[in-house]
Design brief:
206 residues; alpha+beta; 9 strands; 27% strand
Length: 206
């Protein structure tokens, strides 16, 4: 039974990956690699950092998303101008518009089996996906959140959506989230990662 459920979950994530690009939920675009990530930082626990807009986590700092969450989250790096060179073979409709900039965040997410069990789940038989469990957005300095539902779809070669499901305590998924942001809203922005109730953490880009 466990193996069957694992196979089903992997298949579902594979199908999901074909229908989503970057961090756009509900898009029917196939994934096209048209963005690049920055070099990642090492992960260091930072439980005393609030993870708010006024006290965001810095690259490499990790913290449990919220009390009782199964996820410990870290932003490893941000590329604030992530579009691949125009000389690369990228279709015209997958290049950023004149008023857009591709922003890529590389995230690391570690799961706790005990927290999953406390929520009524069984990590070993059900597995979980860092992409499907949480929502990722880039919040501009004006407070507007961009999550890929608008703008040009973008993705790197190591998109978080393609990360394997996690089955064991302490397993970690690492991957990139790409968002098309209006160019005049990029500077001073923060990443935000939230659960299904809209509660979570803010991360500074540097």
């Amino acid at each position: 039974m466990a193996q069957a459920m694992r196979t089903t979950t992997v298949a579902l994530i594979g199908l999901l990956a074909l229908g989503l690009t970057g961090c756009s939920r509900g898009s029917t675009h196939d994934i096209v690699v048209n963005a690049e990530a920055a070099s990642p930082a090492a992960v260091t626990p930072a439980p005393t950092v609030a993870g708010t807009t006024t006290d965001p986590l810095r690259p490499g700092q990790s913290r449990v998303l919220v009390a009782g969450s199964a996820w410990t989250v870290a932003l490893l790096s941000t590329n604030l101008d992530a579009a691949v060179p125009t000389t690369t073979a990228v279709p015209d409709d997958r290049r950023p518009r004149q008023d857009e900039t591709f922003v890529v965040g590389t995230f690391s997410l570690t799961v706790s089996a005990a927290a999953v069990a406390a929520q009524g789940g069984d990590l070993a038989t059900e597995g979980t996906s860092a992409w499907q469990s949480l929502t990722y957005s880039y919040v501009g300095a004006d407070g507007t959140a961009y999550n890929g539902s608008t703008g040009t779809p973008c993705a790197t070669a190591t998109a978080l959506i393609m990360a394997e499901p996690l089955w064991a305590d302490g397993d970690t998924a690492t991957g990139d989230v790409c968002v098309a942001v209006p160019s005049d809203k990029v500077e001073g922005g923060l990443w935000r990662v939230v659960n299904g109730q809209g509660t979570g953490l803010y991360f500074a880009t540097s």
